[in-house]
């Protein structure tokens, strides 16, 4: 079986006899690779720096649609605007008093942000 990775473009042939073990190891490696690209930020300046470095961003957010629209407008460019990508099901601790990186309002949750290419 030939497996092509989307995260790095590599292809690998795996014998059917080892398929389960090899696929599990491959998926674990892909997850580690993706996790290594996450940058946790708390300020707008850190957000724009991480965005310009094409990072996946985890940021405290107030969970307001208007704020997301504002982020899209403020980051619009040649590479496309930033947007929320998803909200982690298992939320990291959000310390009391944490503010939204974009609005300065009280944050309600952590969300992943980035550009879709």
TrEMBL record:
SUPFAM superfamilies: C-terminal domain of ProRS. GO terms for molecular function: ATP binding; proline-tRNA ligase activity. The keyword Protein biosynthesis applies. It comes from the Eukaryota. InterPro entries: Pro-tRNA-ligase_IIa_arc-type (IPR004499), Pro-tRNA_ligase_II_C (IPR016061), Pro-tRNA_synth_II (IPR017449). GO terms for biological process: prolyl-tRNA aminoacylation. Keywords: Protein biosynthesis. Pfam families: ProRS-C_1 (PF09180). It comes from Paspalum notatum var. saurae. This is Proline-tRNA ligase class II C-terminal domain-containing protein. Residues 44-117 form the Proline-tRNA ligase class II C-terminal domain. PANTHER family: BIFUNCTIONAL GLUTAMATE_PROLINE--TRNA LIGASE (PTHR43382:SF2), PROLYL-TRNA SYNTHETASE (PTHR43382). GO terms for cellular component: aminoacyl-tRNA synthetase multienzyme complex; cytoplasm.
């Amino acid at each position: 079986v030939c497996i092509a990775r989307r995260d790095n473009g590599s292809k690998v042939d795996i014998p059917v006899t080892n398929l389960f073990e090899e696929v599990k190891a491959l998926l674990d490696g892909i997850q580690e690779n993706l996790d290594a690209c996450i940058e946790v930020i708390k300020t707008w300046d850190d957000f724009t720096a991480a965005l310009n470095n094409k990072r996946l961003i985890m940021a405290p957010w107030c969970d307001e649609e208007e704020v997301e629209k504002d982020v899209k407008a403020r980051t619009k460019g040649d590479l496309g605007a930033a947007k929320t990508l998803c909200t982690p099901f298992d939320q990291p601790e959000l310390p009391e008093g944490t503010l939204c990186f974009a609005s300065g309002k009280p944050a309600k949750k952590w969300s992943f942000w980035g550009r879709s290419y």
